[in-house]
Amino acid sequence: MAVVEGFLVATLLLSCLASTSYGVTFSSLQKTLVVSASNQQGKVLKGGEGNITITWSYNNSFPAGTDSAYKTVKVKLCYAPISQQDRAWRKTVDNLEKDKTCQHNIVSRPYSPSNNKFTWSVERDVPTATYFIRAYAYNSADEEVAFGQNTDAHKTTNLFQVEAISGRHASLDIASICFSAFSIVSLFGFFFLEKRKAKSAEKK
Amino acid sequence: MADEENSPGSSMHGVTGKEQSFAFSVAADPTIPTDSTAKFALPVDSEHKSKVFKILSFANPHMRTFHLSWISFFTCFVSTFAAAPLVPIIRDDLNLTKTDIGNAGIASVSGSIFSRLVMGAACDLLGPRYACAFLIMLSAPTVFCMSFVSSAGGYIVVRFMIGFSLATFVSCQYWMSTMFNSRIIGLVNGTAAGWGNMGGGATQLLMPVLYELIRRAGATPFTAWRIAFFIPGWLHVIMGLLVLGLGQDLPDGNLSTLQKKGDVPKDQFSKVLWYAITNYRTWIFVLLYGMSLGVELTTDNVIAEYFFDRFDLKLHTAGTIAATFGMANIVSRPFGGLMSDIAARRFGMRGRLWNLWILQTAGGIFCICLGRANTLPLSITSMILFSIGAQAACGATFGIIPFLSRRSLGVISGLTGAGGNFGSGLTQLLFFTNSKYSTATGLSLMGIMIVACTIPVTLVHFPQWGSMFLPPSKDASKFNEESYYGSEWNEEEKEKGLHHGSLKFAENSRSERGRRVLSVSTPPNSTPPCV
């Protein structure tokens, strides 16, 4: 018992000492990048088929030298609020380490103020949802220092929808039916066979 | 023999280790005569039930039946909870909301509420071998159906149908009681149930690994999880065929052959049901088992997703951690039953009740800790302690159930089992289906509910043995074991001698008085116990 108690106390102490690293917050970032995507209003992108062209550049209206720390830019696919409803695993939190808004990486490029363009074809593991595009600028310590997104602050404009592949295949369906049929047929086959054997044994 | 109570007609019979074998009226005698004319690998009693429990043996028919039985039950647990560790993938494929996921979890445990009740009758009619084989092979198509699912509704329906297979619990316990002597049946049944429940843990390990392998072989994520479901489906078919090919209902052969022998005084179902539902203790245990087995099933459904989301782990890491919850069953359920027996040796039934209260409340407290733990090591520790508490409480519950009633044991066991599943559905509905609070808060609230709903065990009172806080009645001649078990029969039935089985059981159950049994004077109209 004492050993168990000691173990529990040690775990408690260790967990208190464990660093609760507090990362960069989203609200501290400046929107210095201008991001736009080529999606057409109302058109649904299909997983595995559709593609979208993304361009991003530095917004020159900010004071010169603001982008001196930017080293890389990562462009990500992010969930719109409607796709976050009732789905806590896509929640937006200010602490970027815990934030789950942008879960899919599109591309990662070294920073350049202009002439950035990328055509992304929607991968087959992207779920059905409504999205927007966001780009984060990172410094040399790989921390977020700025961002840009193709929608407004409330994430209501310029959203686009992706329709995922279903994952179903005709071959799977057929295999499934075959195995199910085998199961039922062998069960009843066994049952009636034994009944017949019992009846013929009784008759003898 | 008129007192042939160990017949296929009495489901759940012999779950307690205290019932005597009825061919020889030896009350509480540790030695049961071996039938030396029988040619079995293990020593058997006069009914050819095994007297020993050799875990590593596969001797036909007793130990072979044990292994077929627990592995079938294990397989059904694997397939019922197979979706749980894959939910992070499935929720993206089918665009599920938290409500959908919660409803599917509830559906997965609700189906067997009914199927467990029906299964008892099926075992009586078809024998445990066919009952088990029918269920496991007819639920194989439901597992294969996962490949067709493309919406939340379909997902919920398929999980509901797969959940029916959990009724193999009943066939498992029934089959054990036809093969093993009642002295050891408590341990045998506890081990079979515990090892079967382990399937809920093994699946958390198995399914993510299968998913990874299939994905690496080239499948996309949304197809890989569907293919992964074929493995539990194949297990169903394989176990069904093994049960049909290698199993037999009774030590001497199959049911149809043996039903010809002897006349069995069959009890009236309406009476059996009446005495079960009018015994207030039945309902307290229905509630209690919902807070031990029920929360165990709920946790099987939510814990992998919880670790994946809360601590940002990889899918198979979350699965491994979640697996330790269910795998603890290998020892913790038998441990609970053992602690119950040890407590009973000194304190009798009061010891069993206290043991149950302590284990279940401890489980509840660690569940609260699990929800509040913010770091991974603390969370895992709380989870392991919670699993031990809840699962040992399951074992301890079935250490007490056999004493609630002799006549209605089968129905009470069935109701308790159904209560377990109901508790699971209820806790999932209350705490894990809506987005009002996070999974972590849901776990803490569930822990509070466990602690609160375990308090009614203090109300369980046996006139002849007492309860947690009250001693037994002073008037030993009026309130004794015989009067308690005899009260389930009316005068007419007593005149026909139908209650003799209950009287014999009453004699054996005197050990539930604890150490006082030696000093108690026996009622004048029963045979003195040989202690």
UniProtKB/TrEMBL annotation, chain A:
The organism's place on the tree of life at top rank: Eukaryota
Pfam families with a match to the protein in the record: NAR2 (PF16974)
InterPro entries assigned to the protein according to its UniProt record, in alphabetical order: Transptr_NO3_Nar2 (IPR016605)
Leader sequence segment: 1-23
Keyword Metal-binding: no
Single Gene Ontology BP annotation: response to nitrate
Keyword annotations: Cell membrane, Membrane, Nitrate assimilation, Signal, Transmembrane, Transmembrane helix
Membrane spanning residue stretches: 174-193
Any one annotated GO CC term: plasma membrane
Function: Involved in nitrate transport.
Family stated for the protein in its record: Belongs to the NAR2 family.
Protein name from the UniProt record: High-affinity nitrate transporter
Gene source species: Abeliophyllum distichum
Automatic annotation (TrEMBL), chain B:
PANTHER family: HIGH-AFFINITY NITRATE TRANSPORTER 2.3 (PTHR23515)
Localisation per UniProt entry: Membrane
Keywords: Membrane, Nitrate assimilation, Transmembrane, Transmembrane helix
Protein's recorded name: High-affinity nitrate transporter 2.1
Similarity comment: Belongs to the major facilitator superfamily. Nitrate/nitrite porter (TC 2.A.1.8) family. Belongs to the major facilitator superfamily. Phosphate:H(+) symporter (TC 2.A.1.9) family.
Keyword Cytoplasm found: no
Bilayer topology term: Multi-pass membrane protein
Chief place of localization: membrane
Residues covered by the Major facilitator superfamily (MFS) profile domain: 65-459
InterPro entries on file: MFS, MFS_dom, MFS_trans_sf, NO3_transporter
UniProt keyword NAD present: no
SUPFAM superfamilies referenced in this protein's UniProt entry, alphabetically: MFS general substrate transporter (SSF103473)
Domain of life: Eukaryota
Organism: Abeliophyllum distichum
Region of interest (Disordered), ranges: 493-531
